[in-house]
Sequence to fold (162 residues):
Amino acid sequence: MDKTKILFVCLGNICRSPSAEAVMKGIIEKEGVSGDFEIDSAGTAAWHAGEPADPRMQVHARKRGYNLTSISRPVDPDVDFDKFDYIIAMDTQNMRDLKKLVKNNSHLEKLHMMTDFAKEYDYSSVPDPYYGGDEGFELVLDLLEDACQGLLESVANEQKVK
Fold:
């Protein structure tokens, strides 16, 4: 069986998407299915390319047992849309930016909102915590834990149908 490839996308790839990457990796490892997945993250902007995750986000993630090891990179439309099965946007602006990069309808079908997979929380997007305080980083992690669990269930259900 081929690995399911998931790309998480936010604006700068230093807060939300690297956190989603770490949370998803933690969940699939706990479930014993990490060998079935390839998880990555990217940003719609390249402002922070080559940088690690925001230090504040790293602190909050570590408190929950997540290690944010990814290095920021921009979305590469020439590679990412063909490589990944799911491309998950953190907010509506990220989704608009991603839709501008697609080259065909099969690429469009890969795009999803992170919050579409949430079960416990009712948010339309994962808010950017960059300009806020501690509570914003904690909210991001709450939403991601919920939505990543829902994403894993959705992928499992979809694979049963195939």
About this structure: The domain at 4-155 is CATH 3.40.50.2300 (Rossmann fold). Helices lie at 16-30, 55-63, 80-83, 92-101, 105-108, 134-161. The beta strands are 4-10, 37-43, 86-89, 111-113.
